[in-house]
Amino acid sequence: MSENPSALSSVPAAGARRGLPASAQLRYFYGPMDCGKSTLALQIDHNHARQGRHGLLLTQNDRSAAPVISSRMGMGRPAIDVTDQMDVRRVVRDLWAQGQRVDYIIVDEAQFLQVCQIDQLAELVDGSDVDVYAFGLITDFRSQLFPGSKRLLELADEVTRLQVEVLCWCGRLGAFNGRVVGRILVKEGAQVMVADTAPGEAWDVNGVRQDDDVRYQVLCRRHWRAGDLGPGSAAQDVLPMSPS
Ligand SMILES: Nc1ncnc2c1ncn2[C@@H]1O[C@H](COP(=O)(O)OP(=O)(O)O)[C@@H](O)[C@H]1O
Ligand SMILES: Cc1cn([C@H]2C[C@H](O)[C@@H](COP(=O)(O)O)O2)c(=O)[nH]c1=O
């Protein structure tokens, strides 16, 4: 691994500032869709950048279909779209070769990264003292771990569940990312299908047309298991209308 110019820069890593060994960390922030992960990613980037630290922003398959980290709060920042074949260490090395510092890396939609790419991030933390902040879902629409998320749980120095509560339609805490096709909750299909929690949007992601009839709905376990999408769902629609 080539030398990190950050170590030579005027803003050394936190540990080095105190004369301690390098103290970079791999931190993983997770939560269901719509809980504020991208917003927090942008806030952390903002706070580091304003202290003169240099960040590298990565994402994969952002909802906006653009290479950006985008928050539903309306903010967004350009990011590198990580392809499956990309060696993240190479991206960092290339920046160093151009004389650019990389003090920290922010990765949004980290659940989509390959297992080997999570290992590469850990290598950047341990070998080059680069802080890594990863944000993503932990489980998919079947409530199974994404491989990238599993690897983050295995490797991260710190794992944090976001505190912003996303509620199921019944008012319980929602932790399950239900995939809704038409008006039906599905439990089979491709693991990756980019879509929003808002209905009726369609776009191309990496040249692949996404199904405009697919959306996600965060549910509690009880209603995810039952496939009950609440008032306005298919089950409700077939009920006879009450006379006016
Ligand atoms: N109009 C709004 N007013 C206040 N908060 C909002 C509004 N729209 C979205 N949000 C907040 O933004 C969160 C979604 O943020 P986002 O970073 O896009 O989520 P994630 O990346 O986890 O899917 C919502 O949970 C909500 O807290
Ligand atoms: C559950 C689940 C989600 N996805 C996609 C849907 C969205 O494009 C992203 C999550 O975005 P957010 O920033 O957390 O709102 O992931 C998927 O492809 N497969 C799934 O099972």
From TrEMBL:
Q: Which residues act catalytically here?
A: 109 (proton acceptor)
Q: Which GO terms describe its cellular component?
A: cytosol
As recorded in UniProt, its EC number(s) are: 2.7.1.21
Per the record, the domain of life is Bacteria
> What PANTHER family has UniProt attached to this entry?
THYMIDINE KINASE (PTHR11441), THYMIDINE KINASE, CYTOSOLIC (PTHR11441:SF0)
**Family note:** Belongs to the thymidine kinase family.
Q: What is this protein called?
A: Thymidine kinase
Give the species.
Antricoccus suffuscus
